[in-house]
Amino acid sequence: MDVDKVDICDQKRGVAKDDDTVGELSTVEDPWAIEAELRVPGMIVQVGSFDWAQSAESTQSMDEYTLAMLMSPRHRYSQGLFETDGNDATFVDIGDMILVPAGIPLRSRASGGPIRFVRCRYEPTRFKALTGIGDMLTPDILKHCLDIRDARLHEAMMRLAHEVLAPGFGVEALAEGLGIAIAIDLARHLRAIDPEPEMIAGGLAPWQLRRILGYIDSHPGATGNVTELAALCGISCRHLRRLFKQTTKQTLHEYVRDAWVAKAKSLLCDTELPLKEISSQIGFTDPSSFSMAFHRATGAAPRTFRQQFAKGGFVARSSTRPRN
Questions:
Q1: Where do the domains of the chain lie, and which CATH numbers do they carry?
Q2: pTM, whole model, 2 decimals?
Q3: From its phi and psi, is residue 249 left (phi > 0), alpha (psi between -120 and 50) or beta?
Q4: Computed from CA positions of residues 39, 82, 197, 202, in that sequence, does the dihedral angle turn out positive or negative?
Q5: What is the pLDDT of residues 79-101, one digit of tens each?
Q6: How far, in Å, CA of 4 to CA of 44, rounded?
Q7: Is there a contact between 68 and 119 (Cβ–Cβ < 8 Å)?
């Protein structure tokens, strides 16, 4: 397989390489600091960082279909919207993983500070051939593209990041295979999205949702206390689980998991606390249980995550709010 590993200094200067394997992928200069990069047919995989100016707002349009995932805690807040003809979209929260379609400007704003990421940049023809995505990017799907939550995609992106940072035998073939699997899983994820109703009927009342989120954000335990949460809302545990998913499009278990994982990432990246102390703060009884759960959720062991991604004082987000 003919693969071109691009000189990072040349990439930052926007110097194009002679390469027939990557189609129309661009090499123009962008504001992202790229640490490591790997090119395979129709795709570039990059690990890098970006330092947002405080409270800055920007608009960026990509030439490729770009799937990006944070490897550091999120900003205190970050929001975005896609600018399309006739689109009256409002800003929504940006999650840990987003898809930026080729040629659709993304307007974003954040509280500021450095972030670290891994991203796959697909040449448009290659991406469409793998996913079949054409005119299906409706305003509702574009909104979901700003907060993609899929365990298989998360695990595959983490593995790609590891391969780019520490390449081993067969890295090119493995990266190409992972890139194909990611594109297909992404297409399945987007096709499974149901149009959101204008109003959620029979869901949690706003005051109930506020109580639940406030409790979980201040008690990021690994399992959560469903009985206590139900009592706070004056409903049964069964109704709590059903109404929470109906309101947020996410199960209570998934939300609690996202909350403690975000807290764990923050403690691993921003402090030098031992794993025993971190596991206790998160709500685990012992470091071994914490390590196993963290690996299942992120695709990396806590020590590995700390060694690879704790670079330079990332600002942690205080909570992981579900979509509106």
A1: 8-191 (2.60.120.10), 206-309 (1.10.10.60)
A2: 0.62
A3: left
A4: positive
A5: 889 988 665 668 888 888 999 99
A6: 10
A7: yes
